[in-house]
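Internal ticket - ligand job 336, NAI:
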Amino acid sequence: MAPISIRTVLISESVDPRCRAILEENGIRVTEKQTMKKEELIAEIKDYDGLVVRSATKVTADVINAADNLKIIGRAGTGVDNVDVDAATKKGIIVMNTPSGNTISAAELTCALLMSLSRNVPQAAMSMKQGNWDRKKFMGAELYGKVLGIVGLGRIGKEVATRMQSFGMKTIGYDPITPPGVSASWGVEQMSLEQLWPQCDYITVHTPLMAATVGLLNDETFAKCKRGVKVVNCARGGIIDEAALLRALESGQCGGAGLDVFVEEPPKDRSLVQHPNVISCPHLGASTKEAQARCGEDIALQIVDMVKGNNLVGACRPRPHSFAPLMLTLLRPAWT
Ligand SMILES: NC(=O)C1=CN([C@@H]2O[C@H](COP(=O)(O)OP(=O)(O)OC[C@H]3O[C@@H](n4cnc5c(N)ncnc54)[C@H](O)[C@@H]3O)[C@@H](O)[C@H]2O)C=CC1
Ligand SMILES: O=C(O)C(=O)COP(=O)(O)O
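stdout (structure tokens):
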């Protein structure tokens, strides 16, 4: 690949300091500005060859059209739904992400939400802080023997599956691309969504946000689920339709929801967050020291690869994600 000249990079969000250090070690001038308004970004973007973002910076067509010198948009993370990739491509701007750097962290938070939902941990903790000792109110249910439906069997979906299997959950799923034989090798039986909805005690979504996944769970699909189904969204706001979710929670069709992401972040309308059967986080899936270190380092190295004209195929370095099935195999008694 021909080297690309990148002399200035703007980092518009809180990205691990290794990112800046690697870029500077390679002669790139870095500016960090973390609270830019859209107008500010539009006014300043022309001064930069590269832009590094996380999920909060909306790199819309008007930002891209104002970016006279921009050659690369680096997303230090997975989802690129905050970047208008079509507009960037039309302008010849490369968009790259670091898709494996935060996989484990997002999977672990999903598991934490599933476990918290089953045992009402956040609600019980809040009640204790208020001076109560309410053992009856927070009666839970075991995850053992329950059915977990995983919609989207990519990196995160797979890691959630292998972890929740160790709690004795049956894992079923759907993905239009991952071959059923592959997901079967990590213990997930694939089926159509029509077959999946009525079987699940818990559903977790792990797809990108795109036209086909907006409102994947809606009034119609909630109606096909078991009464009291619990749902987790650690992927993107809107994959579970928020208004439909609120209606399902109010009717009891949905027994609880664990939400890390929202259509609007932070959400102005707090009716979901305030619902007693909802537990939520402020988009924390990737917010671990380890994930941020990997994503910050990876995006910087990928930009440096471009400057040096290194082949980008395989630039996204493999991560040891398969440790979970390996550990499970080693720890599981031979007769199971
Ligand atoms: N909460 C957080 O902080 C984080 C959220 N994410 C979100 O999680 C999403 C998934 O991440 P990864 O697993 O790494 O992505 P991935 O690309 O490895 O997996 C996504 C899977 O979804 C499948 N898919 C696409 N359309 C589908 C549909 N209509 N129905 C069912 N499956 C469909 C794809 O075939 C693919 O296997 C990201 O796109 C991002 O939006 C990712 C990291 C952190
Ligand atoms: O990587 C992703 O897709 C995420 O959602 C993480 O977003 P963040 O980098 O924490 O703003």
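Auto-summary: The chain has two domains: 8-101+288-335, 103-280. The longest strand covers residues 254-259.
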